[in-house]
Amino acid sequence: METPACASATGRALGGRPTGCRPAASLELVQGDATALPFGADTFGTVTALWISTDVDDFAGALREAARVLVPGGLLLFYGVHPCFNGPHVENRQDGALIVHPSYRTAGRHEHAPWWRVGGIRERLGMSHVPLPGLINAFVGAGLSVDHVSEPREQPIPSVLAIRAFRR
Fold it and tell me: What's the whole-model pTM score?
C-alpha cells in the first residue's frame, strides 16, 4: 500500500508534515480571501468549508465564492460549529451544562464575551456569529441546494453542524 500524500500550510504554524505522509507531487498552496477566491468560475468539483463560519466576517460572501468556483452540480461540504450551541452567547459550565444567553440573535463580529476563557483563542481573537437561519439562508442565497444536514458526534448538546450541498 502506498503512503498517502499530504500537505501542510507552511505559513500558518500548523507544524510539520504528519507522520506517515509523503510530500504531495505538484501541489501548490494558494492563500487568498474567502470572499474573493483566486480561481476562475466553474473550476472545482468539490469545495470544503471547514470551521470557517466563526472566523470570516462575511460567511454569506464566502459561500457565494465557494459556489462560484464549483462546477454546476458540484459538491460543497461544510463542517463547523453549531451556531445554536456554540458562540458568544453560549456559556460553558464546569459541569458540562450550557447556558444560552439572549445574545444568540446578535449576528456579526464579537470581540468579547464575559464567559470566554481568559487567554483562550476566542478572548484573543474574537469571533463572528451567524445564527442558524442566517447560516442556512447563506447556502440558499449562494445558489446551493442543501442535500443533507447532520449534527455529528454523540454529544447530548451538539457542538458541530455538517451540511452537504450542491451548486444548482
Answer: 0.83
